[in-house]
Structures are given as C-alpha cells and as structure tokens.
Amino acid sequence: METIIKKGSGLDPLIEKQVQKLAANFYKKLVNKGLNVGELFEELISQLSIDILYFDFDQPGVEGKKIHGIYLRSPDVEKRKHKIVINTNDNEKTQNFTLAHELFHHLLMEERTSELAKLLENEEWLERAGDYFAACFLMNSENFKVTYNFLSTKDTFEELVLKLSDAFITPYESVVRRLVELNLLPETQNRLLELKEADFIEIREEIIGPTVLDAPSQKNVFQPYANLIVKGLRDGDITYLEAIKSLNRVNPKRTQSIEAEYQAKLDAMEDDEED
C-alpha cells in the first residue's frame, strides 16, 4: 500500500473545521444532490442576489499581484446590490475558483458576528480560508471521493488529476491541494505539488489534448471597472472608504481624486460643526 501525504489545509484546526462546516451547510442549502456545481455556479450565485460581472484586469494590482476577482458589498441593505467582479482573462476553471473564494467573503460579511469571522481578523488567514472554502464547496468531499475512486481504476495518476480538474471545473493546482486535504495523494506523486498551472496544461496537451476550459473565457466585459465604482459611490451603493479600498488595487490615480473629495467633505463637516 502506498504511503499517503497528510498535510491537511494548513489552516488552524479550529478555522479549518469552521470553514468545512460553512461550505458543507451552504452546499446542502444551495446544491441539489448530483449537481455539478462548476457548470451552474453563476446561476447558483444569482439566487443570492449577487451580480457577477467580468472585467479585463490586464494590469496587476498595487502589490504587483494578478487580480483574479473582487467582492463589492453594497451598504444598502434593502437593495442588496452586491457584486463579484471576475477577471475575464482567466480560464473558466480559475474563474469558478475565484467566484467561490469571493463568495466566501460575502458569506462571512453576512455573518460578521460568527465565530469564524472573529477568528479571521488576520488578512493572510482570511485569504487562505477563502481558498479552502472554494475547494470544499466546488470539490465537495463526498462527490470528489466518488469521482476519484471511479477514475483511479482507469487512469494513470497524472490523467486522474487532469480529469478531476475537468470534472469539477477547477484549476489543476487546486485539485492537487484537494487530494492532499482529503488524504488521497500518495507520496510517490509528491512532485505534483511542485507543478504550476501552466505545467499541468502542457502535460495535459501532451497526454490527452487541449481543452477550452484552459483557455481565457473572454466573457462579456461590463463598463470600465473604475467607472462602476464611481457610479456606485454617486448612487450611494458603496461608501467613500469602500470605493477607495476597491479602486486602490487597480487605479491609484483615480483613488487619489476620490480621497481628496472625501477629505474635502470631512473638512466641510468640521467647519459646519465649528459654526
């Protein structure tokens, strides 16, 4: 019998358990048994009154990292015009994973007083928990193990990873991490942990050929992202601070003008109080 790599998610055990619980409860609430989440994910998210929009994030954020997606929360409780913005240059697998990650941020904001929300005050842990939620939700452990057991009798392990990625419409690297989390990755396949998404795509093309799921989706792009933020600010859908935080990642110059406008309003309020 092969030795299995046992690393888990890398999260604090208490956080890991809470994230698993959130993903499982949400999965049971939203997903009909046997449904492939990846194929109908947008429709599932729309049930939460969240708009999914696509934008060409062709420039990295202020930290130099590629932007895969952003969650925009509306302060208007009645209208609830929350939005998730996804990079149209990513392939469908990455877009699905990003969508699930941003969904985690939404669910956490919905339950700010929850034990999990209190445990995730650290930004790094928050992002890692978002990735773990995405894996738990998109690759539900029960369905994942059933598919794994079926494919493992037919294919080499490399082919197994490639086909699991297609089946759940999630990135290859995420599939490998999920195998580790569920104690399904043999030590003999440890090298797969070192491979990047581009490596898997190259291997896939050599073994079973390319797939459209690995190509940029190029879904319809909405109006320029910065304009949407400004419009939301003017319409009262988001606050100045939320606009500044969102824009700072993609358009620092536009952020400066909004910060100046915000400061001017604060100064005016102080002047009124003095009068």
Throw out a few tags for this protein.
275 residues; mainly alpha; Arc Repressor Mutant, subunit A; three-stranded mixed beta sheet; 12 helices; 55% helix
Could you please describe the fold and organization of this structure?
- The structure is a single chain.
- This protein has helices at residues 13-30, 41-46, 92-110, 115-119, 123-138, 141-152, 157-168, 172-181, 197-207, 225-235, 240-247, 252-274, and strands at residues 50-55, 69-72, 82-87.
- The longest helix is centred in the last third of the chain and has 23 residues, at 252-274.
- The protein folds into two domains: 13-214, Arc Repressor Mutant, subunit A, CATH 1.10.10; 225-274, no CATH class.
- It is 55% helix and 6% strand.
- The protein is mostly helical and 275 residues long.
- The termini are far apart.
- Strands 1-3-2 form a three-stranded mixed beta sheet.
